[in-house]
Amino acid sequence: MENHNNKDNIDNKNIKQSxxxxxEQAKPxxxxxxxxxxxxxxxxxxxxxxxxxxxxxxxxxxxxxxYQALQSEKITVESELSTIQAHAGYLQNLYSLRDKLVxxxxxxxxxxxxxxxxxxxxxxQLLQIAENSRVEVTDQSxxxxxxxxxxxxxxxxxxxxxxxxxxxxxxxxxxxxxxxRNLVDINSFEFSYVELDTSDSSIDKSEGDKYAIKMNLTSxxxxxxxxxxxxxxxxxxxxxxxxxxxxxxxxxxxDPKVIEVEVGKDDPFxxxxxxxxxxxxxxxxxxxxxxxxxxxxxx
Amino acid sequence: MTEPFTDxxxxxxxxxxxxxxxxxxxxxxxxxxxxxxxxxxxxxxLFVYNLRQKANITKSRGKISELQTTIDQLKExxxxxxxxxxxxxxxxxxxxxxxxxxxxxNEVNLQTPSNIVLNTWKVxxxxxxxxxxxSYPSYNPIAVFQxxxxxxxxxxxxNVKLESAKLNKESGKVDFSINxxxxxxxxxxxxxxxxNGEPQQ
Lengths: 299, 201
Fold this sequence. Notes:
- Chain B: It holds the Pfam family PilN.
- The structure holds two protein chains of two kinds.
- By secondary structure, chain A is of the alpha+beta class.
- Among the domains of chain A are: 2-41; 106-197 and 204-262 and 281-294, Ribosomal protein S6/Translation elongation factor EF1B (Alpha-Beta Plaits), CATH 3.30.70.
- Chain A has helices at 2-41, 43-96, 98-111, 119-133, 167-178, 232-237, 242-250; strands at 136-146, 155-165, 184-194, 210-221, 260-261, 276-277, 293-294.
- The longest helix of chain A has 54 residues, at 43-96.
- The relative contact order of chain A is 0.12.
- Mean pLDDT of chain A is 79; it is low at 275-299.
- The N and C termini of chain B lie far apart (116 Å).
- Chain B folds into two domains: 12-96; 101-197, Alpha-Beta Plaits.
- In chain B, β3 (157-168) and β4 (173-182) form a beta hairpin.
- By secondary structure, chain B is of the alpha+beta class.
- Chain B has a four-stranded antiparallel beta sheet with strand order 1-2-4-3, covered by helices on one side.
- Chain B is 60% helix and 19% strand.
- At the A-B interface, α2, α3, α5, β3 and α6 of A face α1, α2 and β1 of B.
- β3 (184-194) of chain A pairs antiparallel with β1 of chain B, so a sheet runs across the interface.
């Protein structure tokens, strides 16, 4: 009986030990199965997270950087484009008005000539105005040229001129002078009544009162400015005062008298009138008979 | 009589916990897929947007270079326009600083009393008009003349000053000279604007 009990005890021990062994042998495989199942069950999540992380790292972060760079580049390019469109629009508009532009340039150059070669024509214009106003030119001389220090200011041509005539004609002369497109300013003048010499029988007393006016005048010329260093911005921002063009357009321009001049003379110290041939219809005597015209040298 | 075992849960605790876990896993999967998809969509959208922006910028640059060519071709006209503008500015300056002597002389004519005869008018560059003449039979017309000039609404005369007056016993006339300080052309044009701008009564 006692042996039997001992045997049972030994068997129980053996069973428990084998169970434990079995249990111990089975444990790792079960655990690994559970872990694998867990991992597999989270695989979708893991892949999704991996995709999300990769998307952020590979796509979103670099593309966001690109986006910011492109945004600032876009703003710059758009502003550049709008500026250049405005410039091109201005120039295209100017091109479409090229005939008007050319006409306006001509008018402006008639007002202030480009070259000092036009000085004789200014003097000629004064004689034409005197002729139109029926006043006698008593003297006319070029007293000098004052050159401007800045290229955008005109150079001044100083002229002295005297005319005589009746009051109305002298007033007309001044009015016409002010309305001449080739700009001539009156700087100072002396307007006086001329006492007729009653002892001189050659003077026609029926002519009425006679007045004389002596004037200091200024006309202008301005050489073309150098535009090589100008930017398109400078060009576009330059405003052309339309009112001035309109005003100049309303002023009277005296065309220079056309005289055909034969160049070349055997003896420049002789007066050879045959060398000058007038064109048909052209006036050959720009200076009135009484005028004492004198042109001094221009520095 | 109550049904037996109605209040007994035969489902093992492990199973319900496992079902709960499974449901959470499914939810997690679902959300993670949705989030990943959203992130991917955002990334791809940003990429496509950037590509379009790049294309737009390239297009704009092309347009700029095209317009630049146009500008280069038309710059000559622009330069002519600039020269014209410079010349017109000079004209404007000259015209604005110019004194209208025809208006001035006409105004003096209008304001001269019949008893006064002017002999000389002298205008100096500084804007001083000197008038000299005779007044008959007394000094009175000179005062009228002076007042007329000073009150002229043309705003041409700034200060009218009698410089000299002398009775000539032989002729019975008064020889006089008046100095008038003229308003600058700018002042005259401002005065004209003020006069024209005033409401008419």
